[in-house]
From TrEMBL:
This is DUF1540 domain-containing protein. Residues 12-45, 64-99 form the DUF1540 domain. Pfam families: DUF1540.
Length: 102
């Protein structure tokens, strides 16, 4: 079975996420979710007062549930890297800003 290189989360600007310490995401991997309409949400986003993740980590996209994205190939992200940021509808959640509909 061939493995593919997972894309890095190059940037996350969502300040209200427990995995983000104002410099970078500290989750080992994120999942991009949401329905095939609307925003492509970072399903790993969690707004808690406790900080999570690892102190030093390079974050990757572990899975992409958005089958309508041009970067999605069998639920794996094929983008070189992704950017995560506040959602267009609300800054209270995180979206994949690299999402590109087919």
């Amino acid at each position: 079975m061939a493995t593919m290189e997972m894309p890095r989360v190059a940037e996350c600007t969502v300040l209200g996420c427990s995995y983000n310490d104002h410099t970078a995401c500290h989750a080992a991997a994120v999942t991009i979710g949401g329905r095939d309409t609307g925003e492509a949400e970072c399903a790993t986003f969690i707004p808690l007062d406790v900080k999570g993740g690892l102190p030093k980590v390079m974050t990757f996209v572990g899975a992409c549930q958005r089958t309508d994205c041009t970067h999605n190939d069998h639920l794996e992200c094929g983008a070189a890297s992704v950017r995560v940021g506040p959602g267009a509808a609300s800054a209270d959640h995180a979206d994949c800003l690299t999402f590109s509909p087919r």
